[in-house]
Amino acid sequence: MGVVGMGTVVLVHGIGNLVRGASPQQAAELKAAAAAERLSRGLNAAGLSHVPVPSLVMAYYAHQLADDYRPEQQSADGSTLEDLTPAQEGEAWEWLEAAGVAPPREGQAGMLSPLRWAVNRLVEQRAGDDAPSEARRRLAELLSRLVVAMLQDTDAYTSRPGRRKAVRATVAQAVRDHDARVVVAHSLGSVVAYETLHAHPDLELDLLLTLGSPLGLPALMRKLDPEPVDGRGTRPPGVRHWVNIADVGDLLAVPRELGGAFPVDVHATTDIGLFDPHTLGGYLSAGLTAAALAPYFTD
């Protein structure tokens, strides 16, 4: 494993990152600064407080998703499980079943919609019977918003070839401009990064670190470019080492080891907290993530 010294690390964000009232450059700088603070916490948690935080650059593309659909949907504000299209509802069920919840039997959901019932079932599995009812309610709301945001943002990315190409160009340009050898891709960003690195095979990385990745979900694998063959995705040609980290309770990172469908070198599991199961900041604050990154930006 080669190290990159104190080079730049490019971050590729996931769902719900549209910053209103800011230019793309301003938004990217705000996101990168917040990520640097969280990575500093992660280094401390890993016993690596002596390691300086590298230069972080956010490949910001949220505004490109918002150009051709309702921007308020970017963070799922006002959108609920009941607002999903029939196609999105079908994909939600694939997600929930992959996470271990089957559709309710007749009469089992009571007054709830079947999807909302299924999310509540997941909360019971994650939080346990002893968790206070208010805590379970808050977690159910959080997980519902995550499901809606992921489905809507994924559609926004995959539905138009021109927009998809532009988003990938944004990520590729960030890597080239900073001669980055490490990319950290979170959530939907792992899909964007995977496709970008295939579309731009000249990009060479020492490390691709995916966090909270939904790449292995069948509903999403069907939309990938390049599409997996016989259920198997290929390694981007310029990636030397690929590490994937998933939180034990991350609803969107299912299956956690990407279904065994991608040539990842190391899979690891962390626990970033009951009410912070998917955010980039939560993952960067985890000692496991910081420890995976540190060898690539220290001499």
TrEMBL record:
Domain of life: Bacteria
Gene3D superfamilies according to UniProt: alpha/beta hydrolase (3.40.50.1820)
Name listed for the protein in its UniProt record: Serine peptidase
Origin species: Streptomyces viridochromogenes (strain DSM 40736 / JCM 4977 / BCRC 1201 / Tue 494)
